[in-house]
From TrEMBL:
Keywords: Bacterial flagellum, c-di-GMP, Nucleotide-binding. It comes from Nitrospira moscoviensis. Residues 109-203 form the PilZ domain. Gene3D superfamilies: Electron Transport, Fmn-binding Protein, Chain A, predicted glycosyltransferase like domains. SUPFAM superfamilies: PilZ domain-like. The keyword Transferase does not apply. This is PilZ domain-containing protein. Signal peptide: none annotated. GO terms for molecular function: cyclic-di-GMP binding. Residues 17-100 form the Type III secretion system flagellar brake protein YcgR PilZN domain. InterPro entries: PilZ_domain (IPR009875), Split_barrel_FMN-bd (IPR012349), T3SS_YcgR_PilZN (IPR009926).
């Protein structure tokens, strides 16, 4: 069952320009939900986002109208109750919303995902064609869970595409060195000068771990490492 956690927050922990938001509010007797985009903010004062196109530029939204903001962030559904502070229709339609004091978070992933910063080696499964160097790519492990991981790369090789089968090699600090772990590419998004790829692990396909005084399977090692790194839930 998903846990809902209420907590205070650091502004930098969730705010990203361009982040997709969902705004829920009451317009007269009706409740409505609209999509928008975060454009900026002033710490502990307000957030500014695009005026939802569905409302039209002449929609009357009184200042102080209660609303709820929700969005997806790192596998969690995050939301908070707030109110409309101001709106601007010209030259660009903008909506100003009160800055959150507390938020509620609901984990959507089946497995907790923790941050990491370890080098990772990727190798294409069908490594029979092309030069040896073209079958490998190096990156940085950004986060890890029992179900999968995400990897940042400076360049995306042509074979790194959704649905492809890849083998991964990386270190679990304190436990051992994982080799030959199979992963299915779930997404590979190229942005500016880097690429962020997501992988779903497929265990029991000849993966192994070089132990550091610890015994067990790769699956058990990943589970133990992420459990150790997962912070305890805050009291409600």
């Amino acid at each position: 069952m998903n846990d809902v956690i209420a907590s205070a927050l650091s502004p930098a922990s969730f705010l990203t320009v361009g982040h997709a938001l969902k705004i829920s509010l009451a317009l007269g007797p009706h409740k409505a939900m609209y999509g928008s985009t975060l454009l900026g903010w002033k710490d502990h004062a307000w957030l500014v986002c695009e005026w939802p196109a569905q409302l039209g530029h002449d929609a009357d939204i009184p200042r102080g109208t209660p609303c709820t903001i929700s969005y997806l962030h790192e596998g969690k559904l995050v939301g908070y109750r707030t109110d409309i502070r101001d709106l601007v229709t010209s030259p660009v339609p903008l909506l100003f919303i009160a800055f959150p004091q507390n938020v509620e978070e609901m984990h959507l992933r089946k497995h907790a995902r923790v941050s990491s910063c370890e080098p990772v080696l990727l190798m294409r499964q069908d490594a029979g064609s092309g030069s040896a160097s073209s079958n490998y790519a190096g990156g940085m492990l950004k986060d890890l869970s029992l179900g999968g991981c995400s990897v940042a790369l400076s360049q995306r090789p042509s074979w790194l595409r959704p649905g492809a089968t890849i083998r991964l090699e990386f270190e679990l600090p304190g436990l051992g060195h994982v080799t030959n772990l199979t992963g299915i590419v779930k997404n590979a998004d190229a942005k500016d000068d880097h690429c962020l790829a997501g992988f779903e692990f497929q265990f029991d396909r000849m993966e192994y771990i070089e132990y550091r005084g610890w015994g067990g399977s790769v699956r058990q090692a990943v589970e133990q490492w992420t459990t150790q790194k997962t912070p305890p839930a805050l009291p409600r």
